[in-house]
Structures are given as C-alpha cells and as structure tokens.
Amino acid sequence: MAHIDFYFATISPFTYLSSGTVEEIAARHGATLTYKPLDIMALFARTGGLPPKDRHPSRQAYRLQDMVRRASRLGRPLNPKPAFWPTNPAPSSYALIAAQKAGGGDLGKLLAELTAAVWAGEKNIAEDDVIRAALSEAGFDPALADSGMLQGAEEYARNLEDAVADNVFGAPFFVVDGTAHFWGQDRLEDLDLYLAGKL
Predict the structure, then answer these.
(1) What is the pLDDT of residue 99?
(2) 3-state SS class at 81
(3) What is the average pLDDT score of the chain?
(4) Does this model's pTM top 0.70?
(5) 4 membership: H or E segment, kind and range
(6) CB 136 within 8 A of CB 96
(7) Which positions ≥6 away from 123 have C-beta within 8 Å?
(8) Separation in Å, CA 192 to CA 117, 171, 180, 199
(9) Residue percentage of the chain with pLDDT more than 90
(10) What is the pLDDT of residues 45-67, one digit of tens each?
(11) Strand 32-37 to 173-176 pairing
(12) Residue 175: helix, strand or coil by DSSP?
C-alpha cells in the first residue's frame, strides 16, 4: 500500500484547486494520506523560492491567469485577488493538525472548506469563527480550533523541516513513499498514473 505525504498551505490557491481530487486518487489506489500543513513563506525562504509579491511582474501576471484557467476547468469559483490574502495560515493549520489527530470527521472536506473560504468565500481563515465553521461543516468538534495549539505549533514547525528534508519546495506537493515527488495541482494526473503503475 502506497503512502502519500500531502504538503500544503491553507492559503495556497493551488491547494484549494487540488482539494478533493487528491483524496479521490488516494482512495482509488488504496493509498494512505497524511496531511502536512506548513508555513509556505518559510519554505520558499529555505528552498530558494520567492513569495508571490516578490516575483517578477510577468510571473505574477501568469500566476493569476493560470489560477483562473484552472479554476474554470474544474468548475470552481475563484477570486484571483481575495480580500483576505495573504493572511496568517497558522491558526487554520493548527486546527487541521488537531482534527487529524482527533479523527471523526472528513479531513479532505475540512481542507476544502478552509481553502474555499479564502479563494471563493472572501473570509479570513485566521479568524476563530471561520475556522470553527469549517470544522463543524467537515464533521469535527468546533472546539478543536482552541485545543492543542502548542502541539499544533510544534507539528507545523516539524512539517516544515520534514518538507525541506523531503525536497519539497512548493504547495501543494505530494511525496509517495518518500521517493516519488509531484509538485502542483497540475501534476495530480501524474500522481494518479504513478499509483496505477503507469509512470
């Protein structure tokens, strides 16, 4: 049975666009999945990347066009310049870490709710009420937004270190069994083919 480490940032538009699909792929191939939210800006700093605002204007313009095209292909609403982006991704990441440990709900739906709140809902996922609503919608206890913050902070930091050690440099990023790497929402088809033994 294959295992996928799913590295992502809750403020990433391409994480939003990949949510749901990675879970379908894992289920189709009987693969296990570990959600590993991380500080994407710190990852860029550690691996030679630049935050979007610091990229050349041509790269910024292409990123916006690509986001819109990909959202259109998937039939998902997306505001390429949302009201609450960037925002602090730590609180939503801590809640997702707590939910993963607690169990009892749908982690894929939780990630979808959080990322959609940013990119389609014009909501600030650094705010407790937004996080609580996402937890509730995904079948988790909303109180997880307030529990395990120290443990969440420690795992969030550890996920960054794991990502650097795993040669991860962006989000979303999928690492299968520690050896096969797939970067970006546009590589999900490759991930699917790899797990099917066709790549």
Answers:
(1) 97
(2) coil
(3) 97
(4) yes
(5) strand 3-8
(6) no
(7) 84, 117, 130
(8) 27, 17, 12, 9
(9) 97
(10) 999 999 999 999 999 999 999 99
(11) unpaired
(12) strand
The pair of three-digit structure tokens given for residue 102, joined into one six-digit string: 């607690």
Amino acid at residue number 44: F
The predicted-structure confidence for 15-28, as pLDDT tens digits, reads as follows 999 999 999 999 99
Distance CA 163, CA 156 (A): 11
**Widest Cα–Cα separation across the chain:** 44
Contact assessment for residue 16 and residue 78, using Cβ atoms and an 8 Å cutoff: yes
Region of residue 63 (left: phi > 0; alpha: psi -120 to 50; beta: else):
alpha
Using alpha carbons, select from 168, 179, 176 the residue that is nearest to residue 33. Answer: 176
Cβ atoms of 8 and 172 within 8 Å: the answer is yes
Question: What tokens were used for 140?
Answer: 């988790």
In the structure encoding, which two tokens stand for residue 98, read together?
């707590």
pLDDT in tens, 115-170: 999 999 999 999 999 999 999 999 999 999 988 788 999 999 999 999 999 999 99
DSSP state of 114: H
The CA distances from residue 40 to 9, 32, 136, 178, 194, in Å, are 6, 23, 26, 20, 26
Pairing of β 173-176 and β 180-183: antiparallel
Give me the pLDDT at residue 150, please: 86
The reply to whether omega before 86 is within 30° of 0 (cis) is: yes
As a whole number of angstroms, the distance between CA 145 and CA 187 comes to 31
- Which helix (H) or strand (E) segment holds residue 52: the answer is none
